[in-house]
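no rush on this but wanted to send it before i forget. what follows is a protein written twice so to speak, once as letters and once as structure tokens for the fold. mainly i need to know what kind of three dimensional shape the backbone takes. thanks a lot i owe you, the record is right below.
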Amino acid sequence: MHIPKVLIADPISQRGIDALAEGGVLKVVVKTGLSESELIQIIPQFSALVVRSQTKVTANLLKAATQLRAVGRAGVGVDNVDVPAATKRGIVVMNTPDGNTISTAEHAFSLLVSIARNIPQAHASIQAGKWDRKNFEGVELYNKTIGILGMGRIGTEIARRCIAFGMRVLAYDPYLSPTKARSLQVELFENIDELLPRVDFLTMHMPLTGETKHMLDAKRLKLMKKNARIVNCARGGLIDEAALFYALQRGEIAAAALDVYEMEPLPQDCLLRTLSNIVFTPHLGASTMEAQESVGIEIAQAIRALLLEGEIRNAVNVPSIDAKTLSVLGPWLELCERLGRFLSQIAPKRCEELWVGFSGGISQQNLVPMTRSVLTGFLQHAGGTGVNQVNAPTLANSLGLKVSESRHSDSGEFSEWIEVRATSGEETVSARGTFFGSKPRLVMVNHRFVEAAPEGVILMLENRDRPGIVGHVGSILGEHNVNIASMSLGRLEAGGHVLTLLNLDTTPGKDLMQRLLADHDIFSVKLILL
């Protein structure tokens, strides 16, 4: 009888190891600290690989893993796993989305207290044989204002603790609804620049994406009070570390505490190391006994479920459904996620409701994985690449986003379709998709019929319906060396406004976008990346 082998390549809790090995039905091998070449030599014999953040699961490693069925990440992010390469090879990537929420929130709050009262510096002073009370005068948290950037699970836990300490809590999260903000007793701000000048403390709890990288840069640091203090336990790269160094050195910011860095381990020659008004910890947000036990046991149970029962839990790259259903729904699941991603880029901020409608034969299938695929695509701007079909509903709930679905018997112009609508207040945007043979197509946007491939780079324009407008837009793109792959126009009446969708071969630059927006015949321009 063949016994599947599991390799644990990074340290996890003993209880997690015991949970994997229980009953002797899996052979568990613990080998930590291996180089990529050493891993490549031994990985062909293993059915599953368990890692934390140290081991990089690269395309080369996955190529050598001829028997590998699963990669389990004992933690939230999967930044160290090449998920597309794993998906291409049919390897399931799983994580543990909830295991370290409390641990990270408590660590961030501990750093908050540390820089308020200069605790690490005072401790070091006493160890050096001094008794220096004047230089370590601190500030109280009571009656102070804290800004929280990102109100997901961890940001919400931080808010609760700050409120308990008598702090006023301001929050920025483009996906948090006003209703949810009120229930959390936080004041919601529309943009970061309005929040920053008002806070005494700032803590960051957002994913690292193209939009959030260096979101706290030199310009924004100058907006803050000179006695403000900053904590980052989320992701290295959210803060421009060079700008932070100069702000701390010049007294433009009172203090900072970092647990994550743009480069880890923190380089010895990093200028931040030379400052006395900063506190460092070596990425300890999830480093508690409870968190490590929790994520270790959770990933062990997920690995066992997959290898022994074929059940998929907490999957990042495939929905948690059986293989037979997946063979039917596979193309529709991909279309659902693309519709969600498309809608998220044209929707108003702080959406309060997401509706998914199904018509025709597809409406008779299990709607749960399809709705979750829509939600996954829609929320990736809020939660980053860590959002998946398993944790998307939890994230939606934390943001106050109501999700509903419905079946329709009347298919209308198409035999079957899926439509998604996002609503914020009185504003609603929508997109409908179907298949032409085996090819997915966008067939309606904001109640206007179109035909466009939901892939690559899409430029969406709202423009005046007049003779020559198509050639005019084409000329502008041509002047900027951007080629149009296909074009679709949708209008409600002649001479009114036209919705234009352009599939482009390349991503247009800022100059082109500004040129289009400056044209009096073009009312809105949106760039959608799928």
Notes: The mean pLDDT is 91. The chain has three domains: 5-96+290-317, 101-280, 335-529.
